[in-house]
Amino acid sequence: MNEFLQVLSFSIFPILTSIIYATVIPPMGAMLYLKNEIMLSIALPSFGSAVVAFCILIGVPENTIFQYVLVILFIFVMLNLLSIVYEKAGSLKKRELLLAAVFVSGNAFTYLFMAISPHVNANIAHLLSGEVLAIHSSNCLMMFLASGLLLALAYPHRGIIYAFCLDEEGFMISVRHYKWWIVAYRFILACWMTSSILLIGPLLTTTLLILPPLFSEKANGMDRFFARNILIGVSSVTLGFITALVIDFPPTYVISIMFLIVGGGILFSSR
Question: Smallest Cα–Cα separation from 262: which of 226, 229, 228, 235?
């Protein structure tokens, strides 16, 4: 018991940071799900990992503002390029194939850069393997303040957010300066994808984006749908992290499995 408490004391900031992400990333995944862009949940973390590996390859200092800015810029540009290609692709199937190609390319380039440089391999392997125990108090505080500000701004405008997710064409007609809303949405998504990939890794980021909406789709009403996403995210991360510490396994893998257990339990109980 004493050993567990000692490990828990060293893990408190990684646990808290992961819980903070579980309050923000699942609602973003819910938005992608409602906009029929859920494949972005797979493509963006993969692409972001490739960008992180590329930045390390060309000598960008790790865990610096410059690294964060570069990755955010790459992801933001990719989101805007994809929106242009979406219009030309037309059908949803072609858009999904495009995002699948981004996912495959991201993985391929990530491992290519790791093979080219042992330095890249040494500095990104822990992210790909689900190691999140290197998060410090400064990271936790930064994400706490950022997530609190984001949720405080989003909640009063949730009606506009719902309209944007469900009927983007109607949103463009009814909302003034709609282009700025779209730019803000893509920029916020790029910022959170970047910080999430760098702090908790691409696998847990993808899990937080995809599984909560999957298990929340039967919720009645938009408020309950988004609330259930957060509930599943927070409970799965908390239970999964504690379980991982008890059995001495990498947290990301256990958390991902815990999502299936918690989500499956919610679906079963709602029948």
Answer: 235
